[in-house]
Amino acid sequence: MYSYNINAAPAGFFAILGGMLIVIAIFGIAVYVVQAIGMWKMFEKAGKPGWRAIIPFLNVYDLYELAWNQTMAITAVCILAGSIVINVIPIIGQLIGSLGYIAFFVLHILNSIKVAKAYGKDGAYAVGIIFLPVIFYCILGFGQSEYQGQQG
């Protein structure tokens, strides 16, 4: 006669789920490290200390300061940090946080265009920065392009 252990199925499911979360976490850390390396080289080309690329929020500040100015850099960091913090509040906070993320995404698009121009690239290159920043920051950092300063 066949016996079924009812407790074995949830344990197996949670083992698979835990393994998947570990793989996703390792992948996320690897992407962050590669992006930080690319940004490090980008910052050095612009005359900024490269180590600032590995610190969250500080790297966002510096990236926006390269393309815009200090005021826009502070605005971008405040929108991002505020969205993260307010998102903890149920329903209303999540709605406001979502609007903040949308605002930051719009700023990200505009900043990507300005970063591409600051390194002498065109709008098509900005599309690459918008959708694959990890790869395109590395290309900017390790490639032949030079930082030309803020462009209009």
What does this entry look like structurally?
The protein is 73% helix and 0% strand. It is an all-alpha fold. It is built from 6 helices and no strands. It is elongated.
Could you list some keywords that capture this structure?
single chain, 152 residues, mainly alpha, 6 helices, 73% helix
The largest sheet is: none
The percent range for strand residues is under 5%
The total count of strands amounts to 0
Mean pLDDT: 91
Summarize the structure.
This protein is mainly alpha-helical.
List the helices and strands and how they pair.
Blueprint: H1 8-45, H2 58-67, H3 70-86, H4 92-118, H5 123-131, H6 133-142
